[in-house]
Amino acid sequence: MSHDDCKAWCYSRQNPVVQPLLTDLYQITMAYAYWKSGKINDYAVFDLFFRKNPFQGEFTIFAGLEECIKFLERFQYSDSDIKYLKSTMPSSVDPGFFDYLKNINVNNVTIYAMQEGSVTFPRIPLLRVEGPLITVQLLETTLLTLVNYASLMATNAARYRMVAGKNITLLEYGLRRAQGPDGGLSASKYSYVGGFDGTSNVLAGKLFNIPVSGTHAHSYITSFTSIDDLQAKTLAHKQTGEVYDLLELASKYRDAIAGDLGSIVSEASSGELAALISYAIAFPERFTALVDTYDTKSIEASAKQNTFITSINVKNKLLNKGSSAHTQNGVRNNTLISEPTSHHKNGLLRRGELGELYVRSGILNFCAVALALNDVGYKAIGIRLDSGDLAYLSNAARDIFERLAIKYNIPWFARMIIVASNDINEETIISLNEQSHKINCFGIGTHLVTCQRQPALGCVYKMVEINGQPRIKLSQEVAKMNIPGKKNAYRLYGADGYALIDILQRSTEEEPQVKQKVLCRHPFQESKRAYVIPTRVEPLHKVYWKNGKVCEPLPTLTQIRDRVQESLKTLRNDHKRNLNPTPYKVAVSDDLYNFIHDLWLQNAPIGELS
Amino acid sequence: MSHDDCKAWCYSRQNPVVQPLLTDLYQITMAYAYWKSGKINDYAVFDLFFRKNPFQGEFTIFAGLEECIKFLERFQYSDSDIKYLKSTMPSSVDPGFFDYLKNINVNNVTIYAMQEGSVTFPRIPLLRVEGPLITVQLLETTLLTLVNYASLMATNAARYRMVAGKNITLLEYGLRRAQGPDGGLSASKYSYVGGFDGTSNVLAGKLFNIPVSGTHAHSYITSFTSIDDLQAKTLAHKQTGEVYDLLELASKYRDAIAGDLGSIVSEASSGELAALISYAIAFPERFTALVDTYDTKSIEASAKQNTFITSINVKNKLLNKGSSAHTQNGVRNNTLISEPTSHHKNGLLRRGELGELYVRSGILNFCAVALALNDVGYKAIGIRLDSGDLAYLSNAARDIFERLAIKYNIPWFARMIIVASNDINEETIISLNEQSHKINCFGIGTHLVTCQRQPALGCVYKMVEINGQPRIKLSQEVAKMNIPGKKNAYRLYGADGYALIDILQRSTEEEPQVKQKVLCRHPFQESKRAYVIPTRVEPLHKVYWKNGKVCEPLPTLTQIRDRVQESLKTLRNDHKRNLNPTPYKVAVSDDLYNFIHDLWLQNAPIGELS
After folding, report:
1. How much is the pTM?
2. Could you tell me which chain A residue has the CA closest to the CA of B84?
3. Interface predicted TM-score (ipTM)
């Protein structure tokens, strides 16, 4: 078996690092102590849940279920695992334990879970894991690892999708900033689940069938010094096959449009032109160009006093020519008029102010090549902006595209795509939306994959029942208490179709009924109660694993991705908004309320004062 | 080949996800465009470096080199990779390119690198990668992925080590909060490199030969309801083999010491006692117990008005009995005297105030079992605190241990280990140090593995030379400019043995000489210059990969770990301190300074004003 076959073999199932030893040592030491104390037949129920929604939001997307189930399918300690454990644990450990461990399996484990891709909330178990105490304890860390980051990432991606709106393309570009190789793969996978459209990560594309995308880096541009570096200059016409000199065409267009852009041909980089022509020859049907490589030319000369003037001049030029075009076109009028004030509010140059220099080199060269391509039968795709003031630059670029579309009577030119990719996060997108921009696509890396705003979800795995007896873990903080006993969860919907409340009940209670009054209580605050009359009742858990078998069909990644959007649609906007969202209510039934509080008092004896 | 063999096979080399397709698509599209434009024989030099130290610090630890080299050793596109790329790239791509890609190898690539585990600084290349343009471009993303998180994590761990001091044991507990399975593995590996002593992650232990550690979770305690759950109660004496009833012994001790602890036996949990006895029977030589499971008993009854009084009473009791013990012992006197004021400063109960309730149940039960174990010939290891006011609780626990050590004349009892593990970060440790504590070991999870304070390092990979011509990427921000050309780096040491400055030179310059004046210049600020007379000159780069072979022995993980501490020792404390550290200087030679600035002016033509 070659290494490649091996990789394929491993991956057809799951990342090979997901295995029983991917756990905390204390799970194994506890297993031994349980075994040693004769607790082999103890039967336990654990809830896997989180206590607080991430990112100061009020919802979470549940993800990672398929990986949990695949982990169970393959759960077995190998001989080398046992050998390692023997060498690690004290020599006093009874050898019988290792035989026990070698033969342990998960056939007696039952897993109830929410549907992967569902919107979920604090305290609602994402998984309920039942089975022999030792076995279910041994599953803890791996299940947490598989659910925690997957859910955090999917939630983060879903939040980006919400602020960007459904018409914007979102691409994940974070591989190089992820927590190592597999962190990068998980990021690509779960950002797709959360609503991204694709990734730059080729292996993620191959393994998970996610669309991949990418153009070129600045280094591509800088690897060309001048026109002399251009070895191939020709391209055959898409339809006729006639061979054209792309350099000649592009140079002609560059001269013809420089005035429209307020650019000066001599200031544009000829290395950049060469690079773009070569790229267009390689990808005539997918020509997208990074246009900010030479964004800073002449900074030295003009940064302090001159650029301000220059930029105003450039803007006025755009404005004069642009506004007439706009008026003719009947579209947005004078988008740029407010720019000078907003951008130079305090008479200060802000970062990105110099971006109009793009116009001089990058956008000029790009438009020249795109117009040349048009003559050869190809439609360019668009540009990528990787620095500067993205709102201003996207408006300026769009304005240029629109004017050239009219000038040359090629309407598609106005609709070319503008990709932005410089350190984007949720707040940047919100701010860009407020300023109004013409970006069609965001490429998002660091902030997305590291979940910078909150890099861990904090799921926990708590025992709620053992041998039929409920277990409560009291805590100084009420928020940290778990809800004891085996429970079912339901989502109650209102007449408007939106989810109203999630309710946890004891597993022995009857399911809430449509059109019947359900008393919903806050789990810890006595006086917080409400009657709910649901128009729809959705049981939130299904059995996914029982008797050593998968019991529910596992959806494809695309289906999970669709589920996320459907599930989010059932949530009122005030729960989803970025600023001060309304908490969604998670309640307990009256029966469960009394059960919790009886147990609480029972377990909290009255102190004695001395 | 079994799945296990396969895993072993894969891992003997490297995580199988580290492969050429673990990259951004644009590397492949650029490769095609280069190929298509006939740039097959172009030769490029790239620097991999970062621009800013993480965590508001002034140093970074370089890690991930071994993984980079292993990646090169195996660099080859597989047939299935090529098949996937064919299906993904436009159909117009010349099939000859795929043949080229299939046969590409890294035999003509040369990698210069810093030693793994070295302290390093902004702008100094961690790697210098030279070779055919297309090949070195194709390496970019994977190299960045392998270096970025590894270095960030090692740096984070080294910072924890510094604030904790060298006598504290540091354990990484972050698997469940890491960025997925492999994120967890990388975290364990590189926190060990940075100075941690071990991990809870068993697979990391197995794969990387890192010490693993762990005891039990709260669920272990709560799985025992009462003494009746205790099936085995006996333990044979370590030396004599005589069988003892551990329950009887522990119960006897519990009655005997409750008064010393200010505890009331009836308030201690008997389920907890049963759990601890069972755990001691399983691990008599490694008995460590989590003592905060029943930390909150009687909160309901006493939280608002009574506990304050109770806690003061408990403290006074400790104080009265404790201080005489201390005086006898001649050790720290009245550690607890200042506690009531500092803890109840404003007459308010703070989180953790109720922690003395540990004393009532957890610590009482632990001490009873530890004393019982002592009668059977075993020495208990210690306790773990997972909630509450860790400074106060560790002092209280140590005080109890010390008094019982005297009472029973067992000096080792005073030295038992106290592990703390609740949401620890750098600031918590600093704050605990200020308050004075008696913790011997920190178990650190979320904040360590997610690098919460700064979850990405931001290494970049920039072309600095092509076909012998230097390349400069100008930027609006001077900090974002790269230093062009092929460079060597040296560290100059002063007479006191500390590192004074790092200097970058053109590769054609002569090495700085010991005891000879070296003019060091700020790369961008003309007037910032200094003469340095080094007592030692350390070349920072070695060739690690050339002609398809590894050229330097790759150190073991432990050697890299040692290197980190040695390297940090050469750095003055003011560069390493947590608050407002002094920036370490990174300079350029006069020759390089002039070279940069000539090139800058050459590339930044004078703008024209209209």
Report:
1. 0.88
2. A206
3. 0.86
